[in-house]
Amino acid sequence: MKRLLLAMCLLFVAVASHADERIFYQPLNADANLSPAQWQRVWQDAAAQGAHTLIVQWTAYGDSDFGGPNGWLAHSLKLAQAQGLKLVLGLHMDPAYYQRIDELDTAGLATYWQARLGQSLAQQQTIRKDWKLPVSGWYLPLELDDLHFQAQDRRQTLQRQLKDFAGKLDAPLHLSVFNVGKLAPQVNGQWLGEVANAGIQVWWQDGAGTGRLPPLVRAAFANALPCSIGIVREAFRQVSTAGQPFRAEPMTPQTESTGCHPTAVFSLRYRPWGKVILDNQHNDKVGDVQNH
Q1: Half-sphere exposure of 244 (CA within 13 A, CB side)
Q2: Which of 1, 17, 142, 277 has its CA 20 to 30 A from that of 230?
Q3: Rounded Cα gap, residues 213 and 207, in angstroms
Q4: Is 41 exposed, middle or buried (0-12, 13-18, 19+ CB in 10 A)?
Q5: Is 0.85 topped by the overall pTM?
Q6: Which CATH number is 93's domain given?
Q7: How many domains does the chain have?
Q8: What is the DSSP letter of 64?
């Protein structure tokens, strides 16, 4: 009997350690087609699977604010909050972000970032004033990587900008990063640790879904991360190729131990309980927006 109880406890710990405690959701305009009852079921199921925090990638994408304070996204998030989910709300995303950072020199990049941070601060103030949602944190959807921030002076300028931006917010700032192998793992880990030391929750994407780096290289980057850096387990497998619009299929996220790191899962639409979102998207013939 004792052995059975021990086995059950170990199984519970293993399952709990891989629960979707924090889950990303990337809103698309097509998601407006879901009914309140469907959203209610999604959030109920997410909570039943162990989710306690929902990280919404953005609340404004280009010119779209998904209906604003009286729109479908705000209403859906209220349903999520009613299920006990804490909300980390994304700010403004420029659809041309990745194209723009490809084109800009160091000075231009700093100026561009300052403009984008100003736009996100305005969005944060709008949400606080009009959306009437309890917010546990703010997510900046401008992802970092070790290609565009390979140069040390760029990283230092960015850190100053992020620290200043975070100081203007009334809840912790979250942001995510990914690697393409342009920095050594130890240098990357030190950089992200310095960003985190400014009071920012940094999320490192494990890269299992995009498959850009070999597993041993991904592991080297993960092993060099300070404990404060969160690890995002990608629950998708990319099926599009270079030059095509991003498309992916659901995949069970990696289950290796993440040790001392907080964890999150990307993303809701690829999880079994988010299938209704993905099915609706495909029925609407809308491609994945996705990250990077």
Answers
A1: 10
A2: 277
A3: 7
A4: middle
A5: yes
A6: 3.20.20.80
A7: 1
A8: B
